């Protein structure tokens, strides 16, 4: 698992603290994905950017890892194979001072 920690220059709504951004490549490995989310939460990161997230699919649902402290954003509505699965996943901390919106579907899986 490769991790890079960055501080993003934008600020929260009505708050002067900079956003803390966590970035990692979790290599499609479920425990690495869980560990990255847990570490980001324990260090109070606001935004988590994961490359090569763990994903799976069943006949009825698309699956990925979630965390109770974060809302999950993916660039595609659904996937059913490695060729259609998202290559990135974004998590935004559930905080009334953070506002996040997503436009989907996006043109790429990145």
From TrEMBL:
Listed InterPro entries: Endo/exonu/phosph_ase_sf (IPR036691)
Protein name, entry field: Endonuclease/exonuclease/phosphatase domain-containing protein
Organism, scientific name: Fusarium oxysporum
């Amino acid at each position: 698992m490769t991790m890079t920690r960055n501080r993003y220059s934008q600020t929260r709504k009505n708050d002067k603290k900079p956003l803390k951004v966590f970035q990692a490549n979790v290599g499609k490995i479920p425990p690495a994905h869980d560990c990255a989310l847990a570490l980001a939460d324990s260090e109070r990161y606001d935004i988590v950017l994961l490359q090569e997230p763990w994903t799976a699919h069943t006949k009825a649902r698309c699956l990925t890892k979630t965390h109770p402290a974060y809302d999950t954003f993916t660039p595609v509505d659904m996937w059913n194979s490695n060729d259609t699965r998202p290559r990135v996943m974004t998590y935004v901390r559930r905080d009334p001072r953070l506002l996040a919106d997503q436009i989907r579907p996006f043109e790429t899986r990145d």
